[in-house]
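[scheduler] slot 2 assigned
[scheduler] job type: sequence-to-structure, two independent chains
[scheduler] chain ordering preserved from manifest
[runner] begin chain α
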Amino acid sequence: MLQKYWSPITFTLLWIVLVATAIYTRPALPVDETRYLAVAWEMWLRGDYIVPHLNGETYSHKPPLLFWLMNLGWAIFGVNDWWPPMVAPLFALACLFLTRAMAQKLWPEEKLIADLSPIILLGAVFWTIFTTVTMFDMLVAACTLWGLLGLLMVWRDGDSKGWWHLALAIGFGVLAKGPVILLQILPIALLLPLWDVERRIENRKKWYRNILLSVLGGAVIGLSWAIPAGIMGGEEYRNAIFWGQTAGRVVKSFAHARPWWWYLAVIGPLLLPWVIWPTLWKAAWAGGKKLLAESQVRFCLLWFIPIFIAFSLISGKQLHYLLPIFPAFAFVLARLLVKEEIAVSRVDRLLPAGFVIVLGLAVMTAPHLGLRKFPDWATDLPTAWFILPIGLALYVIVRPLKTQCGAILSLTSMMTGLVVAIHMLFAPYLGSAFNLRGLSVELKKMQDAGYDVAFVAKYHGTFQYLGRLEKPIAELSTERGHPMMEWLHAHPRSKVITLWKQPAPDHPAVDYVQNFRGNNMIVFDVAKLKGDYDLLNRRGKLK
């Protein structure tokens, strides 16, 4: 029994190691993770599960699925800190199981491809790291794989239940991150004539009709939330969720704008160590043009390439937008290694393992080289943790392996060790420079004591969940025309948070100082400032 299920047991154990390490070592990171926690917390406080809010205002940037799931866990286990960082990683684990299920449909006669694909996926360094991060893209990836599994159920077995899977996947994908799920699923579904070499789908009009019906079914699921939310949230919120966010990113990005070639420049490092493993390139050379004659390989290529191009043409780019297409790479690599007879080579493992060894030695020696621009905080990091990936890399080289399966397991374990070491390395720095729980708890005490609290800058809800705040924080600006002075005069019994690059001043108005990324977050008591409001702005006098 254990031998039959060695693959899911292996990748689940590796997943547990990664997630447990991340939860133990890493605080909720501003501004993204703390913002999403704040939205979920405000949903919990308000009991409003239709319209998300952030700091008292409607939050239109993301649909509610992630926030619903955080609230579901709190409803079952009570409000706690361990459940929210588990939600996205659970979807990452689901992705591994869905990857295995898809490979079983693509290559039912090759069980080893199904066993290796999720392990290869987990071994890709960017996927390994993002397995532990609280963001929406793992939810989108899981919905994408679920929908494509539905397509393969229809293609391989003629199973009409696959269309229900596709509709549900689209619907929950919309609830996870909006209509981007259609970009992830529809291209490969519409390109059926280019990848169905065997013509398993004879009635293609029926195929496309059912795709349309599935999209409509998914739209019904998404609109069952969006329509009530648009009505309850008001006109501005309604316009944002139905048009503003998606159109803005596609046409003229207002966030994360980068040149069209940016993904081409970064995709290689994201797929380490596989792209520097010579065995992969030998297998690809051996496969040659015959690979393109296989429906399964075409499916993977026509899934990966059009979406990669589409995201390259969209102005708003982030690395994690590519996560849903990573399994396509894992499928092709698994197929190459299983079907192409490439000899197991210790020499081939030297390059990826040597890369990790060199990286580990560089990290361990860098604090002792007296480098000019080396940050002070980095000199005291526990670099000894990199003995772990270095040891695993040496094991990869020295161990006599008889199969490519053993090589893949060893390399994935090595990358898991590397990511664990990275977490342990940065744990002290993240705890001192990014953990804002202490300040957040103090702000809660101040609000409970009747003080109004304001923040001088754009406020992303950073303190709301960490301090379990029940009141919003006012957002102040030092820009000309902002009524900051009016707010200060109207709220004499208040506390104001501002960020200084300089050391905190020796002033009786300073109530609390928190280190944040080498700067100082300072809480000033407005009454004790006695009109010296320029202390709230380190860039000059207040206008």
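[runner] end chain α
[runner] begin chain β
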Amino acid sequence: MHQRREPLCAKRWAALLAVAGGLVGVLAFPRFGIWPAAPVSVALLSLAVDGRRARTGAWLGYVYGATFLVPLLSWTGIYVGPGPWLILALAFAAFFALLGALLPILATLPAYPLWVGAAWVLQEALRDRLPFGGFPWGRLAFSQSTSPLRWFAALGGEPLLTFVVAGCGAGLASALIALRPVVDGRRPLARPVAAGLAVAVAVPLAGLLLGAALSPGAPRRTERIAVIQGGLPDLALQFESRAEQVLDNHIRQTMKLAAQVRAGKAQRPDLVLWPENASDVDPFQVPGAYRKIDDAVRAIGAPVLVGAILQGPGPTHRRNVGILWSPTTGPGARYVKRHPVPFAEYIPLRGIAEWVSSDAKTVTQDMVAGHGNGLVRGAGAPIGDVICFEVAYDNLVHSSVADGAQLLVVQTNNATFGHTAETYQQLAMSRLRAVESGRTVVQVATTGKSAVIDADGDVVAESGTLFAPAIISRTVALRSAQTWATDVGAWPEYVLAAAAVVGVAVSGVRRRRAAPADRSAVAENDRQLEVART
């Protein structure tokens, strides 16, 4: 007979498990960065919904998601205010409600940890895309930048890593569920306990072995780069009121490095990197800004990737751009940010947004999305340019690497978010992208953290105090070999998400094939269990 397990505990205790799971999940991410908390968080949600009906699992999943996302995304409140922050977190918690509904259905199938991993991938795949292009912050994979599990990202990207983390958590939950007969005075189910613990323990050990096998080793080519962090006062949203000061700060640090090069105190770089919004005034419309940038580039004698805000194409439009500026020929190749942030860089449903928060009125121009693959040529090695939150989106990073980028640059402006965890969470994503792509990743920020990350995901150089100016000069590896993750692209995500859908369908078929009498007995048994445990 096809029958759900008896729930582990009463609903009120299940709700507490869901709350605990969400809070433990927050601990897995920076600033805390306790990576084992991620599988523990998955286990707590799995225990909370075990044996429940799908609709009960849905609301428990929503409780988990809200408890997880509200504190994790608290830094967004600095930018958009408390109202939009809570709307963002509580709206995206709905995807966890879907996850909570699926888990009890998939629990009726054998190999439970595999189905749980697939369900988490499906939830993240939807959340990464919907609505308005999605919001991937808080993916399980992004909590693993310092974990031995991170090497699974080099095999199948972040979706495979999420699958592995969730599978470990589900294995732990399976072992605890199998131990439940001990509480009832019966013998524990030794085989499920052993299998669950094997998944939870053996997989991280496999990650260590993967690290030894997949670490890129010494590069054949290197390049000297300089990272310019101009710094500026901690003004939150008001930083744009001093746009030319932001530019002047980056000019000043570049000139400082140029003077050190002329004095023989520093090596001339092959490439200089400025952050996003280093020039918040359009140099093609403000001649003084153009001259300042051109003079600085000529002084340093190397191409500079300049982050700038350009006006147009329409009167209420602007673009977030990386411009490769040559010391001999001036501005050249450009990359235009392909995924502007909704309700921050452009305002969908403007009337409603302004009613919810008056801060939406501060975005007077909508940012227009660019096109292409993110590859910037003209400075020696091809560069994969990624601007700010784009680092969270798999396809925007994959595209430039797949088309030949030998170095990844993440241009970002974190000034808006003050001293919150946002900059550290973003740095963790950049570290994971380095492992996934097998590339050196350079994160360059207006106020920090700027960092150079090697292909193993280790930070080899970083800026110090937030909002202070900094110069990082470093010789970095250039690589052209592709990881398995780059070769397979999005296929692991497609396959695993589809597997979750197939699992739900198979569970439904098994339930429908049950004899009518058995279905009646199951329904009555389920009803009595829910009543007894409430």
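[runner] end chain β
[qc] chain β: The mean pLDDT is 90.
[scheduler] slot 2 released
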